[in-house]
């Protein structure tokens, strides 16, 4: 992974985090990050072009768009193991392994998000070597991000943000890899119980 790709991981991680403030609040920061960290002028312009549609949205509008895009749809979310395991009981163990990897690399989570929160993991792999377990994690994230983009609506402004990762950072996975991603998912059992449970 080259420096431009690592820079993109950091910029996109910020754009995919919950928008507490409207994006134009961070425009100067994004422009400075691009100017300092991205060597390709074409890539700098492409990054700017992709987040420009979000600049005109108010805080409320962008928050509503964010929630509609990532929080209300089960097929588009920002949690790696949710793509891989769904509501499987194995998801807890996968989260523990991820947290252990993060801690052993010398980092600590500063937010309350789960260890598999993709914006946080993008920042993590931007500063870790592309080898061993970190390389495997990059591959997992790449498959999940490609799957996410395929599920998103083309006219959603966030689709072009996610596409920065699929276009410039992660290799395109095979159809087999995409099928294997969701093969281990288990859905939550939401059926009614066969009898009422009474509490005293």
Textual characterization of the structure:
With 200 residues, the chain is mainly alpha-helical. 62% of the residues lie in helices and 0% in strands. It has 10 helices and no strands. It has helices spanning 3-15, 27-37, 41-55, 59-71, 80-85, 90-104, 118-126, 132-151, 157-168, 175-183. Helix 1 (3-15) runs antiparallel to helix 7 (118-126) and helix 1 (3-15) runs antiparallel to helix 9. The longest helix has 20 residues, at 132-151. It is globular.
Radius of gyration (CA) equals 18 Å
Number of helical runs? 10
Fraction of residues in helix = 55-70%
Give the overall form: globular
Distance between the termini: 59 Å
- Find the structural class using helix and strand composition: mainly alpha
Offer a quick outline of the entry.
It is built from 10 helices and no strands. By secondary structure, the chain is mostly helical.
Q: Which structural traits does this protein have?
A:
200 residues, mainly alpha, 10 helices
Describe the SSE topology.
Elements: H1 3-15, H2 27-37, H3 41-55, H4 59-71, H5 80-85, H6 90-104, H7 118-126, H8 132-151, H9 157-168, H10 175-183
Helix pairs in contact: 1-2, 1-7, 1-9, 2-3, 3-9, 7-8, 8-9
């Amino acid at each position: 992974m080259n420096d431009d790709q690592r820079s993109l991981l950091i910029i996109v991680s910020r754009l995919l985090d919950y928008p507490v403030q409207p994006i134009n609040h961070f425009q100067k920061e994004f422009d400075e990050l691009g100017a300092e960290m991205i060597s390709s002028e074409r890539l700098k312009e492409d990054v700017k072009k992709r987040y420009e549609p979000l600049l005109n949205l108010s805080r409320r509008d962008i928050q509503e768009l964010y929630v509609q895009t990532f929080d209300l749809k089960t097929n588009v979310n920002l949690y790696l193991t949710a793509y891989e395991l769904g509501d499987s009981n194995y998801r807890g163990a996968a989260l523990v392994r991820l947290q252990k990897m993060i801690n052993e690399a010398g980092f600590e989570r500063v937010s309350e998000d789960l260890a598999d929160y993709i914006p946080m993991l993008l920042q993590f792999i931007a500063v870790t070597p592309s080898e061993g377990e970190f390389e495997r994690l990059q591959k997992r994230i790449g498959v999940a991000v490609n799957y996410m983009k395929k599920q998103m609506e083309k006219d959603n402004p966030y689709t072009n943000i996610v596409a920065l990762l699929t276009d410039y950072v992660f290799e395109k996975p095979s159809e087999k890899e995409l099928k294997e991603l969701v093969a281990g998912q288990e859905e939550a059992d939401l059926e009614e119980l066969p009898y009422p449970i009474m509490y005293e």
